[in-house]
Amino acid sequence: MPIPLFDTATPLAPLQAELREAIERVLARGRYILGPEVQAFEQEFADYVGAAHTIGVANGTDALTIALRAMGVGPGDEVVVPSFSFYASAEAIPPTGATPVFCDIDPETFCVTAATVASVLTPRTKAVIAVHLFGNVAPVVEIEALGVPVLEDAAQAAGSLGPNGRPGALGTAATFSFYPSKNLGAFGDAGAITTNDTTIADRARWLRFHGSRDKETFEQLGYNSRLDELQAAILRVQLPHLDAWSDGRRAAARSYASARLDEVVSLPLATVGSEPAWHLYVIRSERADQLKLALSAAGIESRGYYRTPIHRQPALRAALTLPGTDAAARTNLALPIGPLLSVARVAEIAEVVRAAL
Ligand SMILES: *Cc1c(COP(=O)(O)O)cnc(C)c1O
Q1: Nearest CA to ligand 1 atom 6
Q2: How many independent structural domains does the chain possess?
Q3: Phi, psi of 174 (to 5 degrees)
Q4: Which of 89, 111, 133 to mutate to test the pocket of ligand 1 (most atoms within 8 A of CB)?
Q5: Over 90: is that where the pLDDT of 1 sits?
Q6: Do residues 278 and 302 share a domain?
Q7: Which of 252, 194, 220 is nearest to 64 (CA)?
Q8: Mind listing the pLDDT tens digit for each residue in 60-75?
Q9: C-alpha of residue 355 to centroid of ligand 1, in Å
């Protein structure tokens, strides 16, 4: 049987009846935008991450733009962001009027560090986007100690644990994507902003509804970016299972480590004190392309992520030298992972990796 990179269907199979009930509940009520399901999900997700406020929005990219604006980012400001991330992490900055400033990562953790951020700070830096890449937890407290507010891009880190709490409650604000393949996935596009700061929460609520607090007076140019009732109801069914799914992901990562894959490739390194809910299990090898071919021949899906980092993309090109970024982009390869990936399947994958190298 082929092994996919991620299996989003199997963990949901036991929840089918509950998911249908949730969808029918919404249909019966006939309310589809910003209703009781969204309100309940916002409370439940805030409780889960340990933040005071959750604001449901249309997707993880809008979440970043709206959160930055709610944090006061605007024209003339700079926002630091890693180049080794999904493109949206940086794409979300220019719509605020601010300029993205790319920083490097530690290729062992795939995350930014206080040092990579510190080296690009200027008097115009208004915020840092710390991406919890692949589910690993970026060192938010160390970065905020540099004196600059952190927006966590936690799109890949629902279910992870950091040394000081969960992603979503570590920085000044945080954003999530509930794109279907993420650790907590909707059945369409969905996203959220979390924060402990009431002013930021209020501004984000207004911005997601056209910049209006009362739906009559429009004080700012905002967005139509709302989480809908169907997606919220679907997410509410899944949220109680996120911790068990995350434990399953961690167990699969441990299986990879105990299969002694570290003898042939570099394994992802969890940041100090963190327990990542690995969204992707990404190894590094100078022979990543050869390995991908061998895995593919054995029916095992794998994928090199962000081979062209953001600072080399046509739309956001910047002439920079980012050695950690280039190393990660060239050598990374994601192996299958998921809440239910068994020890036997990991052993099978590990066997193919060893044979290939
Ligand atoms: C998925 C993702 C986003 C964007 O989320 P969408 O819901 O697809 O808009 C942003 N940042 C990172 C790191 C992501 O993985």
Answers
A1: 60
A2: 2
A3: -145, 160
A4: 89
A5: no
A6: yes
A7: 194
A8: 999 999 999 999 999 9
A9: 34
